[in-house]
């Protein structure tokens, strides 16, 4: 009776998960391959602030307008209760949110979908824009005039003039340069000062603000570059090194001024950018088809979540697959390990350290911690104080290892802090108990099994195609659940036991 109940439950789970998967794939056309279409990016800007009670609130924010190297597919403004208007000002597009009354913490969202496209914004033959020299103080104006004469003598054209300007701004021990930078040597300040110097020489230049797109980009730092017009097109330069050429993955967000332009009636204004890589064409067609049919399958999908939450679920949804691997290794193969969740958490830590570095770090920390645990055994400590002491030793070892590897120029050691310290502590404790009760061989087998399980789980959980499938089709986890439930009743021989009982078969 119990077996029949479990069988029916598993069949229902497989049927539900498989049916929804086939419907989204075959009927709606959701792509099952991660590289089934052109790569598109969902970029999100999140503006947070505290509204001043009883005062009107206005926030002016730049949004992309023909970013070079990209095309804008779609955009969404999320601002409940706010009035919204957009306008083009000085070649930049701005959004203005306004509300008569607001209280407490407020959040505004802007989301855009862009994809790499042929750059048409910097085509040859365009006229250079008019140049307006900035206002310098008398002392700064004298320094700029002298610099312009020196730079002109050491340059041959506009491009070399701009590069020479940026290189001279990098002279930190020069009092004249420090006067211009006013103590701020950031890329943004260099780009602003360089644009002013070039404008004095009647050369059109402007700071450009944006960020580099990443597959899993949360809280992307806002970067600054310098654009200089050479009479035919805009040239992009790194304000620190002067290197020409804009990276392919750099998305220009605003020009001339930072994205947040001005605001009224707000305090503690904060801006965060996030980006996630998605597929386009097949997915867009699937959404359109679902909307035409009134289907809710994609309207309430994970793609409707904010980008930062999407990044979290791309990782979290692979954890059941890692757990299934642990089940198969323990119940079918017969691999011994320290529990179920410890190998999965170690596999998640391997995402940052990479597999080989993670194995070396795990082995080293556990070995040193095991030695400390055996020493504490002589002190006759109670369980909880002993665990707390081992945890303290593990944290100190991780800190010393990070400092040591950093001094030696080994960057992998800096990722050691990402290891789950409590899991390492419990692993050391369980390994020491197993060492005492069953001997060194049994303890080493469990440690090796845990490391093997974590490595296999890491390889599956970081596979791009696997991440794409479970994110686009989370219903497949119902099938994973059915397999896991079915394995809960498996009582047959394990593969490692076949060799143990081989003599009985003869």
UniProtKB/TrEMBL annotation:
<feature type="transmembrane region" description="Helical">
    <location>
        <begin position="356"/>
        <end position="375"/>
    </location>
</feature>
<dbReference type="InterPro" id="IPR025838">
    <property type="entry name" value="Transglut_i_TM"/>
</dbReference>
<feature type="transmembrane region" description="Helical">
    <location>
        <begin position="412"/>
        <end position="431"/>
    </location>
</feature>
<feature type="transmembrane region" description="Helical">
    <location>
        <begin position="311"/>
        <end position="328"/>
    </location>
</feature>
<protein>
    <recommendedName>
        <fullName>Gonadoliberin III</fullName>
    </recommendedName>
</protein>
<keyword id="KW-1133">Transmembrane helix</keyword>
<feature type="transmembrane region" description="Helical">
    <location>
        <begin position="387"/>
        <end position="406"/>
    </location>
</feature>
<keyword id="KW-0472">Membrane</keyword>
<feature type="transmembrane region" description="Helical">
    <location>
        <begin position="443"/>
        <end position="461"/>
    </location>
</feature>
<feature type="domain" description="Inactive transglutaminase fused to 7 transmembrane helices">
    <location>
        <begin position="23"/>
        <end position="182"/>
    </location>
</feature>
<dbReference type="Pfam" id="PF14402">
    <property type="entry name" value="7TM_transglut"/>
</dbReference>
<dbReference type="Pfam" id="PF14400">
    <property type="entry name" value="Transglut_i_TM"/>
</dbReference>
<keyword id="KW-0812">Transmembrane</keyword>
<feature type="domain" description="7 transmembrane helices usually fused to an inactive transglutaminase">
    <location>
        <begin position="263"/>
        <end position="504"/>
    </location>
</feature>
<feature type="transmembrane region" description="Helical">
    <location>
        <begin position="473"/>
        <end position="492"/>
    </location>
</feature>
<dbReference type="InterPro" id="IPR025840">
    <property type="entry name" value="7TM_transglut"/>
</dbReference>
